[in-house]
Design a protein that fits this description.
Number of helices of chain A: 14
CATH architecture of chain B: 4-Layer Sandwich
CATH topology of chain B: Purple Acid Phosphatase, chain A, domain 2
Number of helices of chain B: 10
CATH class of chain B: Alpha Beta
CATH superfamily of chain B: Metallo-dependent phosphatases
Structural class of chain B: alpha/beta
Strand order of the largest sheet of chain B: 1-5-6-10-12-11
Mean pLDDT of chain A: 94
Radius of gyration of chain A: 19 Å
Number of strands of chain A: 8
Helix content of chain A: 40-55%
Strand order of the largest sheet of chain A: 3-4-2-1-5-6-8-7
CATH class of chain A: Alpha Beta
Number of strands of chain B: 14
Oligomer: heterodimer
Distance between the termini of chain A: 35 Å
CATH architecture of chain A: 3-Layer(aba) Sandwich
Low-confidence stretches of chain B: none
Shape of chain B: globular
Structural class of chain A: alpha/beta
Order of helices and strands of chain B: HHEEHEHEHHHEEHHEEEHEEEEE
Order of helices and strands of chain A: HHHHEHEHHEEHEHEHHEHHHE
Radius of gyration of chain B: 18 Å
Low-confidence stretches of chain A: none
Distance between the termini of chain B: 46 Å
Chain lengths: 331, 307
């Protein structure tokens, strides 16, 4: 099971590479051309690094990129952009210009996510903690260490562990999220309790059992005095006629032994919000379809349309309505 | 090439030789060449929506609606792409058409084009199955000859997508030079790409091709051509079919659990003599032979999700 979950990182990464190859990502914002160029460079460098470190992983990514269809590219664009925007929003609130007050990000199940690279160079007082399975951390740290681009951006690693990366602002280390004692120990070692903290979980909670995910959330929400949890996950759907979630569970179980134990438990935006202990007014949830309709500017929608013929709006709506971005804040 | 033998192979999801596909496509082309842009069909007839390579479900469709041995069918296009048996589904319909020419009408969908099949799976399927793209090229040649519409008993206009601001009468469709790749704009494109919507006049389509049209456009077209109904496909409907504009237009969708992940049911529309409508709903099930064995061995596809 751990292996099946761990391999989902190749899906996430190949989706990203595909969306970049087809020019969905990065999002185009005028005046941000330099950052957009860096974004592409970093991901291409990581893909090359993956090729030299693990042929097997690379061929998986490569195959997936070849066959990625517009619905997947749209969904990847939205997932990536929605999370980026939520992070930017958090930083805007907590990083005051000129002030020295630190902020921190804890990325649970970080996988190949490369957000830390650009965020750390853009936000001077930011500290970033990346956590994942031991194997994923070993792979990622090898790629980061072997590439001059990441070396330059992140600074050389001082990690004494074979699997991990450590600088004064960035830490990548292995952690079993089902082991609360271990999680608590790592948070204590690498982060500060009274500093504004952003917790990021991108398709992480959905693979955990209900009790374990609850324990993880309780542990983190009680550890930090003030924080915001940003979580991206699928939801099964709560309409009795809606079979999307059940079919998804069956498909993933049969094709790759992947389980989503709580997909039909936290199956609607309302129920998903109940994962967090925060007050209802400080928890907001949008489905990716809502995000597409409400938050993507018209010029971006027009740009996306020119990239590939999108044949099925109805299918896109069904799929995107089963993925959410939650933002839960506490203090 | 013996059509009946090929039908038997296709029904089992088995691969047919490149030569057989070549012959089949050539003969189909000859047959389609003689058809008008808009075919005339008599009732009773069963109208079917998108198939998208879901061969198991196509077999279920024939099974539950009486079969081609005893019934006439109009297929509204989108035979290929997305599903895993695009080739077999398309060839099976061609074989049936060769075997029973007056019982199968095949209308072109927006997926029956070179450009779209390169993105949405049919091209990849062929390369995967044959190691080269010849069979894809043969099929694309056939696509260019598929008709653009049909009229049932002079009363029901069948088309894949919908109406076009450049088309007021069915006769104007008859004048289109159809034997070509679907253009990016114009009447032929719109017929394959447009969608009905709650709009007061022609509007831009979110798909990037074709238009959105509303009740006014439908009423006008029906009135102008002495029609009662526009039967079209092109849009996924969770309930299998959806009537709009006081019953003047219906969307029929015939691919259950679309893409093996959407969880929808499918429908076909039976039009009887006297134009009464009857919808037959069916779900995605493994098609079985008469002793309960799966007709096609299941190759469980790996569906795409965001993980």
């Amino acid at each position: 099971m751990d292996r099946a979950v761990q391999e989902t990182d190749y899906d996430a990464f190949s989706c990203k590479v595909s969306a970049i190859a087809k020019h969905y990502l990065p999002r185009q914002v005028s005046g941000k051309e330099k950052e957009e160029g860096e974004f592409v460079q970093l991901h291409m460098a990581y893909a090359q690094g993956l090729k030299s470190v693990s042929r097997r992983a690379y061929s998986k990514v490569d195959r997936a990129v070849q066959s990625a269809q517009p619905v997947m590219n749209y969904g990847t664009y939205l997932r990536s952009v929605a999370i980026d925007e939520a992070i930017a929003c958090f930083l805007k609130e907590h990083v005051k210009s000129g002030a020295e007050a630190p902020v921190q990000v804890v990325n649970l199940g970080c996988g190949s996510d490369l957000r830390m690279t650009q965020m750390l160079s853009q936000v001077p007082h930011l500290k970033w903690l990346d956590l994942d399975f031991k194997e994923s951390v070993a792979l990622k740290s090898r790629i980061l260490e072997n590439n001059p681009l990441f070396q330059r951006e992140l600074g050389p690693s001082e990690s004494v562990e074979t699997a991990g990366y450590l600088t004064n602002r960035y830490c990548l280390t292995s952690c079993d999220l089902n082991d609360i004692a271990q999680v608590a120990e790592i948070l204590k070692k690498f982060t500060t309790q009274d500093c504004p903290t952003l917790v990021l979980s991108e398709c992480v909670l959905c693979y955990m059992k209900s009790a374990e995910s609850k324990a993880l959330i309780n542990c983190i929400e009680s550890f930090y005095k003030m924080g915001t949890w940003i979580s991206y996950d699928p939801i099964g759907g709560d309409d009795s006629a809606d079979k999307f979630g059940k079919i998804m569970q069956t498909n993933l179980r049969e094709s790759r032994h992947l389980e989503m134990p709580t997909l039909m438990v936290y199956n609607s935006p309302e129920k998903y919000a109940q994962r967090f202990n925060t007050a209802p007014h400080s928890t907001s949830i949008v489905t990716m379809w809502q995000y597409y309709v409400q938050s993507v500017p018209d010029e971006e929608k027009m740009r996306l349309k020119t990239l590939q013929f999108l044949d099925e709006i109805e299918e896109l709506e069904i799929i995107l309505s089963h993925y959410i971005l939650a933002e839960a804040s506490w203090r | 090439m013996k059509v009946d033998e090929t039908i038997a192979l296709l029904r089992q999801g088995k691969q047919v030789s490149e030569e057989t596909v070549y012959t089949l496509c050539l003969r189909s082309q000859e047959l389609l060449m003689s058809e008008a842009n808009v075919t005339r069909v008599d009732t009773p007839v069963t109208i079917c929506g998108d198939i998208h390579g879901q061969l198991h479900d196509l077999l279920t469709l024939f099974d539950k609606s009486g079969g081609v041995e005893n019934n006439k069918y109009v297929f509204l296009g989108d035979f290929v792409d997305r599903g895993f048996y695009s080739l077999e589904s398309f060839l099976l319909l061609l074989c049936y058409k060769l075997r029973y020419p007056d019982r199968i009408t095949m209308i072109r969908g927006n997926h029956e084009t070179r450009q779209i099949t390169k993105v949405y799976g049919f091209y990849d399927e062929i390369v995967r199955k044959y190691g080269n793209s010849n069979v894809w090229r043969y099929c694309c040649e056939v696509f260019d000859y598929l008709s653009l519409g049909a009229v049932v008993d002079g009363q029901v206009f069948c088309v894949h997508g919908g109406l076009s601001p450049n088309v007021t009468t069915v006769n104007q469709i008859r004048a289109i030079e159809r034997k070509q790749e679907v253009p990016h704009e114009g009447a032929m494109c719109d017929l394959l790409w447009s969608d009905p919507d709650e709009v007061s006049t022609w509007s831009l389509s979110p798909r990037g091709a074709g238009f959105l049209f509303g009740r006014n456009e439908v009423d006008q077209f029906l009135h102008c051509n002495g029609l009662e109904l526009i039967a079209r496909a092109h849009q996924l409907v969770m309930e299998g079919y959806k009537e709009m504009f006081g019953g003047g237009l219906v969307t029929v969708w015939s691919a259950p659990n679309y893409c093996y992940r959407c969880g929808n049911v499918a429908a076909v529309l039976r039009i009887e003599d006297g134009l009464s409508r009857e919808y037959m709903i069916f779900e995605a099930v493994q098609a079985q032979d008469d002793v309960g064995n799966a007709i096609i061995p299941t190759k469980k596809p790996q569906m795409d999700y965001f993980l």
